[in-house]
């Protein structure tokens, strides 16, 4: 995650997830397909967010595959 300036930060949130066939390449646990939300904040005020889908590992947080 890149921080452009200390006033700007980005938060990634998992809004929902369900198990999917597959394994995490990092820790070997089950993967999940989840609805993600990325919120970009400026001075702690959210000004931009987008939702996206991704196959993630809920255990270690690795993003295995993302869809736009
Ligand atoms: Zn994992």
Folded structure, characterized:
Strands 1-2-3-4 form a 4-stranded antiparallel beta sheet, with no helix packed on it. The chain contains no helices and 4 strands. It has 68 residues and is mainly β. The protein is elongated and about 40 Å long. The chain has strands at 8-23, 30-42, 45-56, 63-67. The protein has one domain (8-67). Zinc ion (ZN) binds at residues 24, 26-27, 29, 57, 59-60, 62.
Per DSSP, the total helix count is: 0
β content, as a range?
Answer: over 45%
Low-confidence stretches: none
Main β-sheet, spatial strand arrangement: 1-2-3-4
Provide the structure class.
mainly beta
Write the element-wise H/E pattern from the N-terminal end onward.
Answer: EEEE
Mean pLDDT: 89
Binned, the helix content reads under 10%
